[in-house]
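Quick start: read one record
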Amino acid sequence: MPRLMLSDELWSKLKEIMLQERIYNKPTLRMMVEGMLYRMRTGCPWRDLPGQFGDWNSVFKKFNSWSAQGKWLRIFRGLIREPDLEWEFIDGSYVKAHQHSAGACTEESQAIGKSRAGNTTKVHLAVDAYGLPVEFEITGGEVNDCTAAAELIEKLPLSEAVVGDKGYDSERVRAQIERKGARAVIPRKRNSVKGNDDMDWGLYKCRHLVENAFARLKQYRAIATRYDKLKRNYESMVAMACGYLWLPM
């Protein structure tokens, strides 16, 4: 029997959220979800799913259908309970796109772009003061943090401070954060005229929380390397991983 990820307690909590998404609670649902989590954890091709999870094609079709409807994203957001929004930390991380992720039958880039590492996708993540994910964006690897910041910050809940590294050093980003009623804790670059006299270095040291979140997410092979051809499917994989971090809370 393959190693499973959901205890009875975790499954009870996850099932409640899934039923709110009008997902039918048939007898095979738990093992089907375990199959999706197994693929997220191991990164194996869908065809190589162990038979204990059911027919691999049925599991994939259900995952693809839920992804198209945005259900995994809503399940992730439904699992967020009482986040500590005193501070929010943002950062981006490259993900190598496997050769199997190429070749989608669409003219869109599917969030795969060229960077120094070759074909890559970038995950832009925001975590709360506990270091748990509260929002994320998926872009091509060529998109820098500052460019993706506008959409990510716009979706963030209200907080007292938003903390980021020098990649977010932009007056536009700072102004957007301040319009949301938060304080921008972002160091200015070395050639800045204004300098860092107003920088809260004590709070900035806590920025490791978002780095820790990336380290936890990338323990799952299908997150650390992108195998999915479609952006929406990789986005759902990331949503599953983020939601799983919230399950024990």
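Residues 150 and 176 are 7 Å apart (CA to CA).
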